[in-house]
């Protein structure tokens, strides 16, 4: 399959046409484009777009895509650029559409429990807005400054997936612009839909390769009235992690089950300059329970606390005050930044394995740590089997780093495959993880994905070279 | 796009080959095939397959598909045949694969809360099995003798969608056979997955046109310890229905909110020979609440009962004994059969509209009833906007029936479109509802769906002529 067309390079005439669409103030060319737009948060891949266009409406996006389609120019859509796999890097140059200014909350419909938003609204803004209205948008990825468009495109998960599921579960409808500029409405406010292939569900998680999301209708829930966190120290990580499938088996589903190790906590204390409520143990589980009354929650967590104590927990620390919860969750929120600040460079792996295989996977990373003589840090979502594993460069040379990193990634993704896990739980494939995806899914699935990509985008101009290419 | 190949007719040589795959006892040819296999429950369309093959394994399905693909023979997969839109009718003849005997529950994994099943397992068997293990499979369509394969293919919804969502939300992984015989594993036991396009979510709801499901990994929840139903009589249906968005707005989400009218209740009493707890009012809402304690549920329903009384409810009847619940829900379960028994022939429409538009849609069906001088019966899922509307033939001539039915369908689907609703909430498009889908989604989306269909099935041999064709 010949995927990469001989894309047209942007010239003066193109710029004139694009200026006619959005005006001259929202277009940036060549060296005037900030270097920020050449990369995401941790992709390790960089490339500048030829033109950067800030858009304000669906119609503008549609006109740009129509022109790009007719003229064979590659296009990448970008939100906050908080991705971790290079999905929004314009590796073929061309046009970058910046959707950050399409950031209006359009409608809260309390009778249908939906929120209609533009793609550039930040996750933290959605959280704040709905909570002020006593409502709840459950997906809760760590990176709160991501846009909702980016969250939908990676099918972001986050802490509360154990109980509430992932972003796709909360997308009721989408307005999208197709690669040829056609505007389509998919789904809507309806709760059930069995009316043809579910294009909406397919576009969720497609990392900007199939269509550009210009509006989303999100499903909301009533806001749980109370939430309590339990911080549970264990003698070692094995004991902590091995307790997780027992909690699930006991049929009390917490909202979230996170795991963390002492050295990550210490790094976070140093990074934030704030004490964590406890740092005496080697490993911790952090559980949250939510519900509508203290009694309801207590009944749930009593059972789980008992299971933890029976399985080697040293103590069960209850965080029911806002202050204590804040101190725990702000530390949890700073783990990524704290690890990043402790080294020269790092890369990450966010495999997801069945819940009862997490312990085995983490032990394997210890083995790799020794074998390759590198620092490897873990934390993540124990409740849903989604690990966040960071490999640190420290003082390695560029060459050693690249070689060792590749070897470690190969080992980890092969292990994930062996455990019936998957390459990415929530960060996506983008540019950086393609070969590991191909290894997992095989040639037939890769070819099928590419045929579908071309069904959406026959000229392969929308974010080419990503996911399955 | 030329979709319909010059399909090969089955000959002696084909039969010999197919017998070599499954043996001679599981193949039926020509007039030996029971007429049952020419239609589903209410499709109004009939066509016999040329060969009917009962399969027992994925490998058999794969071999049959490989042969059919190489020889350009159309294939339709079938479960219990309880569909309502002709999706499993082999309109181009060819091979029918009967999956009903692939009906084993393969594994209950309590640590990952998953159930692995073959596609022919019946919904009622899954319900029984998981409840015996104190677990819960939430999707709850009325037709309990449907297979899980059929449920996944229509993305079936049912009563509990208000709180728990639909079938797609509970499918973690699929094993499928592609049109060319390739076997693929999609998803798995993992809770989160952002690893390439979500083929699994796309195949859910694709009505057997993209691949044949040969295994499914379902997500389970802990079984709620208690459930209580409230039967709430209202003076008239308007008052009942108009209360629904107020319940949702009050942020107490019931498990289900069904509506029913007096004459449907009377029909069901007659059909079952059993009394309904109350038949004095014109209209009823039937609500269920579930949870882990009586107190938790009571807190929830007290609030909702109050809202109902403030909005014209005559009374609130609580069904907390098994006996009373059984009498209400067995009546609810018999509505379709009871209406069917009251007339000569009927057809149905299962539009889904935003929850706050149900009242408007139902009033519109009253108008049509008068205008066309036909009996039209409603019941359905008020909580999720998914209506079940039955148009009865009674003593109309065949010609009048066909003409009037078409005219009424046109009116209803146009109204659904006007209210931002969709053609089908849970029954699917199949063969019978295609033109209404095309009218709703327009030419661009139809063409896109067809391009995707051909990406899965380049020779268009798997269930051709359905959904978007």
Automatic annotation (TrEMBL), chains A, B:
Its cofactor is FAD. GO terms for molecular function: FAD binding; oxidoreductase activity. InterPro entries: FAD-bd_oxidored_4_C, FAD-bd_PCMH, FAD-bd_PCMH-like_sf, FAD-bd_PCMH_sub1, FAD-bd_PCMH_sub2, FAD-linked_Oxase-like_C, FAD-linked_OxidoTrans_Type4, Oxid_FAD_bind_N. It holds the Pfam family FAD-oxidase_C. It is an enzyme of class 1 (oxidoreductase). Residues 45-223 form the FAD-binding PCMH-type domain. Keywords: FAD, Flavoprotein, Oxidoreductase. It comes from the Bacteria. The keyword Oxidoreductase applies. Transmembrane segments: none annotated. The keyword Transmembrane does not apply. Belongs to the FAD-binding oxidoreductase/transferase type 4 family. This is Putative FAD-linked oxidoreductase. It comes from Clostridium liquoris.
